[in-house]
Write a structure and sequence with these properties.
Layout lengths: L4 E7 L3 H12 L4 E5 L14 E2 L11 H17 L4 E10 L7 H13 L10 E4 L15 E10 L1 H14 L3 E4 L1 E9 L2 E8 L5 E11 L5 H7 L9 E12 L7 E5 L5 E7 L3 E5 L3 E2 L11 H12 L11 E12 L14 E5 L7 E5 L6 H16 L22 H11 L5 H11 L3 H5 L11 E3 L2 E2 H11 L4 H8 L8 H12 L7
Parallel strand pairs: 1-2, 1-10, 2-7, 4-12, 10-18
Antiparallel strand pairs: 3-6, 4-6, 5-6, 8-9, 9-10, 11-14, 11-15, 11-16, 12-13, 13-14, 17-18, 19-20
Length: 504
């Protein structure tokens, strides 16, 4: 491996790093990617899990970002209809509220018309005294606006990009830390350490892409030895998961007196996701945890709208992540730009470097295309943009074909419970059949770890998706951690420790 000279070496296995690697290898570049932990173990699994235009970004005049995001919603939905699907949002309104009705109407008009919407339904106005969406809310909210955005299983989107990149020939290395990178004889010389085995390796590449997310400045300082690197503003976002607060399939967009917003979203069938917060963060991103202050904030903010208050004791799980926003000098964390910035160093010389700052799930594909424009300018163009008409693994079925896929799976595997079949199609799409193989009865799926997580699924995740620990399976490849007890989770961990890592 050390003798091969890659065109591109990518640092970072979040959505941007995996997206760039996939796009690049699909154009004919030779690509290697190193991620120091598991895929999506940082920011990319800690999002609010929306494919959205960013309605609130209009207030900060980020029209380019909003337009690009709106255009991407339906493109990404078609790319991965198993892990991405439309979601209607209800924005309750009352007279004397945070924002006047005319401003909301104007924002939603732009939202409907700025991004070439074709499949998603348009904005509507709801009478909350008659509409079922009003049932869980306080009587104060007699009116609401309803609009469209999308939902995504964020961590699965990351690993499917990595899987597709590997299938197309990229060298994908999770749990591999870059310890140094230096220019020598017109090439990058990169030293890595396997964080599991301790093995050290050397790599060579014509170009380096630093897509390390919250660690992008850290990589610049430690791996490259540049002490002055302060490009990223770290902003913590935390979420709480509570038992289901409402039966309606729509989500809620709540406006708070401090001008911040939170969402309340149906989650995994049995739960409600509430988030997010926005506050500056200065500690190590790997140590991020929800604070008591954030917990109280989210509970209080949601309780301003729901008839039945949200209490800290209702919380069944929390997660937090650090967003690596480009530091544009904004005074408040929620005002810092969500747009991405790509900075090319060494343009016109050997061994160029591309640093990736900011970005969000919705725009990762376009960020990747823009990164490939800079890569082409630096080391030569290979291939044309291709991802807009592509499918992520398992997503090769019609954009509105989820129900048909579920029915198809149940016909072939008649023993599957309806909910189990639905979950498998949501996670794996057309790859669910590869996971189930020749199984003819539940017993053929092997050991049951809890919920409907069977040995066959765990083995598939180890063999095809680089899962190595129970946490990888329970909280990133799936969300079965919400359904398994501590004892069941420990049993899974022990099982996985006894089988070899196999994905490649």
């Amino acid at each position: 491996m050390g003798r091969e000279i890659h065109d591109i070496f990518v640092i970072g296995g979040g959505i941007n790093g995996c997206g760039i690697a996939r796009d690049a290898v699909g154009r004919g570049y030779s690509v290697a990617l190193a991620e120091m932990n598991d895929f999506a173990s940082g920011t990319s699994s800690g999002a609010t899990k929306l494919i959205h235009g960013g309605l609130r970004y209009l207030e900060h005049y980020e029209f380019r970002l909003v337009r690009e995001s709106l255009m991407e919603r339906e493109i990404l939905w078609a790319t991965a209809p198993h892990i991405i699907w439309p979601l209607r949002f209800v924005l309750p309104y009352h007279k004397g509220g945070i924002r006047p009705a005319w401003l909301i109407r104007l924002g939603l008009f732009l939202y409907d018309h700025l991004g070439g919407r074709k499949l998603l339904p348009a904005t509507s106005v709801l009478d909350m005294r008659r509409d079922p969406a009003g049932k869980p809310l306080k009587a104060l909210f007699a009116k609401a606006f309803e609009y469209s955005d999308g939902w995504v299983d964020d961590a699965r989107m990351v690993v499917l990009n990595a899987r597709d990149a590997a299938d197309k020939g990229a060298t994908i290395m999770p749990r591999t830390k870059v310890v140094s990178a230096r220019r020598e004889n017109g090439l990058w010389h990169i030293e890595t350490t396997d964080t599991v085995t301790g093995r050290n390796d050397s790599h060579q590449a014509r170009m380096l892409v630093n897509a390390a997310g919250p660690w992008v400045d850290h990589v610049i300082r430690s791996a490259f030895g540049q002490n002055e690197a302060h490009h990223v503003r770290l902003v913590q976002g935390s979420h709480i998961i509570v038992k289901k607060k409402f039966d309606d399939p729509r989500a809620y967009f709540f406006q708070n007196p401090d001008n911040r917003i939170i969402f309340a979203i149906p989650y995994e069938g049995e739960f409600t996701l509430i988030g997010t917060t926005d506050r500056d963060y200065t500690a190590d991103p790997r140590d991020v945890r929800i604070s008591e202050e954030e917990t109280v904030y989210l509970c209080n903010a949601a309780s301003e709208y729901f008839k039945e208050p949200v209490r800290p004791e209702d919380i069944v799980w929390t997660y937090s992540a650090v967003r690596p926003l480009y530091d544009d000098g904004a005074s408040k964390a929620q005002e810092a730009t969500r747009d991405y910035v790509l900075k090319l160093e060494g343009e016109g010389s050997a061994a160029p470097l591309l640093n990736v700052f900011g970005g969000k799930l919705t725009t990762y594909r376009r960020l990747s295309e823009h990164a490939l424009e800079k890569i082409g300018a630096a080391i030569g163009v290979k291939g044309a943009p291709w991802t807009a008409k592509s499918h992520l693994p398992g997503g090769d079925f019609p954009v509105k074909g989820y129900e048909a896929e579920v029915a198809k799976l149940k016909r072939r595997y008649a023993f599957l419970a309806d909910q189990h079949a639905r979950r498998l199609v949501r996670r794996y799409g057309t790859k669910a059949e590869a996971l189930l193989g020749d199984a003819r009865a539940t017993e053929d799926l092997g050991r049951l770890f809890g919920g409907d997580l069977y040995e066959a699924e765990v083995k598939y995740l180890v063999e095809h998706e680089w899962a190595r620990h129970g946490e990888d399976v329970l909280w990133r490849r799936t969300k079965d951690g919400l359904r398994l007890s501590q004892e069941q989770a420990q049993s899974l961990e022990e099982y996985m420790a006894a089988i070899p890592a196999m994905a490649g």
